[in-house]
């Protein structure tokens, strides 16, 4: 199924068709929140297989969640930056982080989750602005 094909009329089902596998939101997290733009940086902490990473990046580019560019320091490499559509996933990532902090044994995001709980909207706005700024900085 291509990123533009919908198997149903349900927005949740359609979002999950694009984002609902094991790796895609982690890739989006790395690009949007982690500001990891180089192929070798994306998904490195989780050990995503290169064929899976390539496939997911291609799907996200086709769905206009991210854009692919030539890497500024090495023309043989590619860099991936979030689009506005990708940046709009900050809220989803934040909610998953808070949920995961509350309902799983993960501990690495506890301080961040606590800061989000104190002022969720300000944190989301800050993270979105930071992602936009990183895109601008890349193009300078």
TrEMBL record:
Molecular function GO labels: DNA binding
One family name in Pfam for this protein: HxlR
Superkingdom of origin: Bacteria
Sorted UniProt keywords: DNA-binding, Transcription, Transcription regulation
Ranges of residues in domain HTH hxlR-type: 10-108
Entries under InterPro entries matching the protein: HTH_HxlR (IPR002577), WH-like_DNA-bd_sf (IPR036388), WH_DNA-bd_sf (IPR036390)
Gene3D superfamilies: Winged helix-like DNA-binding domain superfamily/Winged helix DNA-binding domain
Protein name: HxlR-like helix-turn-helix
Lineage, top ranks: Bacteria, Pseudomonadati, Planctomycetota, Planctomycetia, Pirellulales
